């Protein structure tokens, strides 16, 4: 069985920097991504996005009008 830790057990030049890669099987990045998905599902953000979008637009328009910002 291949383990991600085997990637770090190397003598290649600059191998000590591998953990800085946010794209390539970084365990910290994967943990953060999974937690992010968990929060999005728990707070029902996928289904609420339309409602939140409408609310944000209305509130921004009010602020723009109060401060005489061009639209």
Automatic annotation (TrEMBL):
Gene3D superfamilies referenced in this protein's UniProt entry, alphabetically: Aspartate Aminotransferase, domain 1
Keywords: Aminotransferase, Transferase
Gene Ontology molecular function: any one: transaminase activity
A Pfam short name: Aminotran_3
Top-level taxon in the UniProt lineage: Bacteria
Record carries keyword Membrane: no
Statement: the UniProt record of this protein carries the keyword Methyltransferase: no
The protein's name in its UniProt record: Aminotransferase class III-fold pyridoxal phosphate-dependent enzyme
Originating organism: Viridibacillus soli
């Amino acid at each position: 069985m291949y383990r991600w830790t085997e990637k770090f057990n190397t003598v290649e030049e600059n191998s000590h920097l591998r953990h800085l890669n946010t794209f390539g099987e970084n365990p910290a990045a994967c943990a953060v991504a999974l937690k992010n998905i968990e929060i999005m599902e728990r707070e029902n953000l996928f289904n609420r996005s339309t409602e939140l979008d409408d609310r944000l637009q209305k509130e921004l328009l009010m602020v723009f009008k109060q401060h005489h910002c061009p639209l």
